[in-house]
Design a protein that fits this description.
alpha/beta; Lyase, Ornithine Decarboxylase, Chain A, domain 1; TIM Barrel; 2 domains; 9-stranded mixed sheet; 8-stranded parallel β-barrel; 21 strands; binds pyridoxal-5'-phosphate
Length: 421
């Protein structure tokens, strides 16, 4: 459920007409609904009560500081995968003891900065990382709180580029080696073991792979406790999928996911952390774009938009589907036209949708890509020297630009011509 609906024939973001924002900001732009973000975060919190828990928003899905402040003020923790994300969380006012640090390639500089600024835990992904972290922390006279990310070797049954829990993936330590690596962690002077971490992939639409992974984590918890480790936290990662079409997909609800967590790990007395990204941010955002041209080809008609793969890369990168809707509600029963929906970039990959049925469109018409809040703006680039796409946040009848569109002067001025050239 989200707050992008037609009212009086016009698409609204909560109480604000999308066309009004477009007139003020220009296109393309991302638009987020504060009420949708709040609702999705609250669903997770309710799903995990009454277990002791912390819902850590995966910043990589949507990292604008205004959004982080909104969620942080509701009590959310944050899951970061770089020191850049860590600094964004801090800038949003989130205290270090609510920030967990994930990722396979944390550098010593990143470790030092996170230890200085305060951190809830590092989710360590390899033995070399564990040793480096111990050295960094010990040199600062500290013990770094850690979980080890275990790779449970389960098939998440999602797109290959976002499956992370099979043994051939680069993530975590094999669960079969966990006992030995925890023993090593316990001996290191700069390390304090606090729990176990797992994250098997993204856009999972079935609970079975989660359940398999969490059952393995429950067994491992009992084993590690028997071996003398104080396992008091379980970080179960993110990955719950969202519906990208309004018709045929019905992924499990956060409440189903919460019930499954209670069933698999709820009796261990551990504090539960989860790291949802997409389910909080995905359906809380749209990308709004204008039609530049309608081009009739020999075999098909092209809708050429002013948004492109640099603004929203998911269709090109993951073959992802986004529903595309006109901002002016088409009359009931209007005869649809079939379009290939494309951007202006000089690549055939810059195609958002092939053979999409839409109400007939004219140059200047506005369209919205639904479910674009997650892995949208954060993956945007300036390819083809297109300025980074701006972001707008709506709450009720308020709206604000939360990242302005850079000017062309900004874009060109960043480059430096050396004086010897
Ligand atoms: C990407 C990622 C997440 C968030 O995944 P979603 O599918 O957006 O919920 C959580 N934890 C880790 C470690 C990740 O890499």
């Amino acid at each position: 459920m989200d707050h992008f609906v037609y009212k009086h024939g016009a698409l609204h973001a909560e109480d604000v007409p999308v066309a009004e924002i477009a007139a003020a900001v220009g296109t393309p732009f991302y638009c987020y609904s504060a009420q949708t973000l709040t609702r999705h975060f609250t669903l997770f919190r309710e799903a995990l009560s009454p277990l002791p828990h912390l819902v850590c928003f995966a910043i990589k899905s949507l990292s604008n500081v205004a959004v982080l402040k909104l969620l942080g003020d509701l009590g959310a923790g944050m899951d970061v995968v770089s020191i850049g994300e860590y600094l964004r969380a801090k800038a949003a006012g989130v205290p270090g003891d609510r920030i967990v640090f994930s990722g396979v390639g944390k550098t010593r500089d990143e470790m030092r900065m996170a230890l200085e600024g305060g951190i809830r835990q590092f989710n360590v992904e390899s033995e070399p990382e564990l040793i480096a972290l111990s050295e960094v922390a010990a040199a600062m006279g500290l013990r770094a709180p850690i979980t080890l990310r275990v790779n449970p070797d389960v098939d998440a049954k999602t797109h290959a580029k976002i499956a992370t829990g099979k043994k051939e993936n680069k993530f975590g330590i094999p669960i079969s080696r966990a006992s030995a690596v925890y023993a090593e962690a316990a001996r290191l002077p700069g390390i304090e073991v606090v729990g176990i971490d797992v994250h098997i992939g993204s856009q999972l639409t079935d609970l079975a792979p989660f359940e398999q992974a969490f059952a393995k984590v429950a067994d491992l918890t009992r084993q590690l406790r028997a071996e003398g480790h104080d396992i008091r936290r379980l970080d179960l990662g993110g990955g719950l999928g969202i519906p990208y079409t309004q018709s045929n997909e019905t992924p499990p609800l956060p409440s189903d996911y919460g019930a499954m967590i209670k069933r698999t790990v709820g009796d261990l007395g551990c504090e539960i952390e989860i790291e949802p990204g997409r389910l909080i941010s995905g359906n809380a955002g749209i990308l709004v774009s204008s039609v530049i041209y309608v081009k009739s080809g020999e075999e098909r008609d092209f809708l050429i938009l002013d948004a492109a793969m640099n603004d929203l890369v998911r269709p090109a990168m993951y073959d992802a589907h986004h529903d595309i809707v006109p901002v002016v509600e088409p009359p009931v029963g209007v005869e649809q036209q079939r379009y290939d929906v494309v951007g202006p970039i000089c690549e055939t990959g810059d195609t958002f949708a092939k053979g999409r049925d839409l109400a007939p469109m004219q140059p200047g018409d506005l369209v919205a890509f639904r479910s674009a809040g997650a892995y949208g703006a954060v993956m945007a680039s300036e390819y083809n020297s297109r300025p980074l796409v701006p972001e707008v946040l709506v709450r009720g009848d308020h709206h604000a630009v939360i990242r302005p569109r850079p000017s062309y002067i900004d874009l060109v001025k960043r480059d430096v011509i050396p004086d010897w050239l």
